Request: fold
Amino acid sequence: MAYQSWEDIAKEQAIAARLLKNHIQLNRVNHAYIFEGDKGTKKGEIAHFFAKTLLCKNLDDNLNPCNECNNCQRINKDIHPNIITIKPDGKFIKKEQVQDLIEEYSKTALEDSPRINIIYQADKFNLSSANSLLKTMEEPGDDIYQILITENYNSLIPTIKSRAESIHFKELDRSLIRDELKKLNIKSSYANPVSQYTSNLDAAKIIATDEDMIEIIDLVIAIYNALLADKESAVITFLEKNKQVLSDNDKAKFFLELMIIFQKDILQFKLNNKDMCFINQQQTINKLASKIDIKLAEKTLKNMLELSIRLKYNINLKLAFNKLLMNLERGYKHATHSSRDSI
Reply:
């Protein structure tokens, strides 16, 4: 959903909202910006809102676009001739794309208003296209503005970074993501772990409404509960319900990350920090925390984190997870420590 006001943006990206709004208010808008930050931080949406603010003829007292004038209406429909977007053509942004942009800006503007180009994945320039872009940054022309969007700021060449003002977009607050999921009637038992897994709101919405992903969350909860039951096995629970986990690497990564988050909850409980992700599993977490000492809790978490690194390589997922769960079961079911042991 498109932003309607700077106030809406400030709820998610307070620093970016303040800087950009001040630049407009003080009539000090730079000719080139770099919007950099992780995926899902709304860089593209805010770039379009910023462009709309520069083009709107009827800004309100808070510098919000009216959404009713001809410029706003065309921007909302992505048909405004003064906004040009560039995305990689294949793996790279090619020299020809930048040359087309230069040629377009060499012409007399069809409309008497600022011209703005928004470049997505700006780290994908090759050397020749980057050098061509530099020419547009050195002599941008009157009322011509550039917004470069990237998730890999360090991949930009220094000369491009030196000619633009960089604005960092922070990860979205996890509580914002959780609250947005709850608005979709996602139960807190699912909204909490999903919001901890990703800071990308769009991705969070997809995960939280995916039945396969929900089954994986339920599996993680079932595995940890099996660690408390004498006649149940975490390994067998996994073997019976691992179809979704082993179907692709993304789901395997999701499964392991949730196992890690649950284990962190146990460790946090032992450290007397009751701020947990799996809030509906407090009783289970409490009982598991009472069975092991700090060192074992930390060692278990370390093993999980090491496995998450190995997932990047071609490993036998079933074998790796079975080994992890056997060690987990051995640690919890045969632990001799109790809640009376010192922390």
